[in-house]
Queue: 2 jobs
Job 1
Amino acid sequence: MLGAGAVGVMARGPSQSVPMGSSGLNPVEVARNFINADSNRDGELTRAEASRMGFATMSFEEMDRDFDGVITRAEYGDATR
């Protein structure tokens, strides 16, 4: 019998996995890529910031859906689905 503080106890409950998008990245990885590239933390990626992205499925122009010269987190998220 195991006492208090015993090692080897299995957690029970729902799976903690996060589904992957068609890009092969899960939403956490998508957010991490965006945050890491957003050097000034303004919530938008300039062309220079986007060039530092670890992963992109489209060109800057394709991700910039509203043609305002920056990529928002929503635009990047849509591009990785």
Note: Residues 16-21 have pLDDT under 50 and may be disordered.
Job 2
Amino acid sequence: MISRKFEPVLFGFLLSGLMSLLVAGISTLRAVGLGPDFLWLWAGSWLMAWLFAFPAVLLVAPLARRMVRSLVSPVE
């Protein structure tokens, strides 16, 4: 098991991986269509996107949490 102190980083890792997988797949499909090289192109696009998405999620997550806290009412 992974220590609980790594939970935010693991969450960011998984979230960025899944979101970049979906976005890269949709973008690749729209750009080149469903051809014979689609899966290879998608995989390459996904890995490149993930390299940027993971650090971005780690940097932006605290800002997003503060924004959400300012938009929701406090617990009653």
Note: Residues 23-52 form one domain.
